Amino acid sequence: xxxxxxxxxxxxxxxxxxxxxxxxxxxxxxxxxxxxxxxxxxxxxxxxxxxxxxxxxxxxxxxxxxxxxxxxxxxxxxxxxxxxxxxxxxxxxxxxxxxxxxxxxxxxxxxxxxxxxxxxxxxxxxxxxxxxxxxxxxxxxxxxxxxxxxxxxxxxxxxxxxxxxxxxxxxxxxxxxxxxxxxxxxxxxxxxxxxxxxxxxxxxxxxxxxxxxxxxxxxxxxxxxxxxxxxxxxxxxxxxxxxxxxxxxxxxxxxxxxxxxxxxxxxxxxxxxxxxxxxxxxxxxxxxxxxxxx
Length: 294
Hints:
Elements: E1 13-14, E2 17-18, H1 34-38, H2 40-44, H3 58-87, H4 91-115, H5 120-124, H6 139-147, H7 163-174, H8 178-188, H9 195-198, H10 213-221, H11 227-258, H12 270-276, H13 283-291
Antiparallel strand pairs: 1-2
Helix pairs in contact: 3-4, 3-6, 3-8, 4-11, 6-7, 10-13, 11-12
């Protein structure tokens, strides 16, 4: 066909309507569809406001938290895989998982701006129907904290009525954290990680170990020679920075919407969230910065 006879791109749209190409599949009577693959009937039926009469903004509140849980499911999946890859000395693919988590964290932090469009007056009109339901009871969030090393066995009692959640958290509690596996990897690579660090009780929350700072100082003193370890250290710092930004944004959103009111789950509310900013995952990776000359 001569060039002047070819249909131009402009001819594909007429009266502001795009032509459906003949090759586009439209019969899904016996084919997998988008909605079928994603089980959209189930997913989109999971938003069930309980305020009566139904308050307009309750749907926002539900979707905000449901999408957060979906992202947390993926974060947990990626962090567990990263941990397992480190155990197998597969550092490069582990860092790919961590890189993905960092992008998810940014999305989760940005989501708070959507919830922040909920005014105090609007939220007060349906807050009562939540009863004692609270984000504090998110077992996936707790599992993410556990996988990163912020273990707290006392949190398990919140989930005693949910056998499935308890099993997930018990596994996360009793398994080495991402940091534990990174330190074990460093030891296998010849770095002088103390034996008692490698043999610690992994069900306990990680606490600052000053004897690790010289190990990281060695890595930071010669990044080129220690590149893999150096890069991983910085990726872990990114993870913690992002996590703290999420916590801070959570705190400020709560203060914006309910001020100093107590939480629906029984916590003190904003003061309780503020104390979470004092929790840390990788304190030695921050402490080493003080030891770097210059």
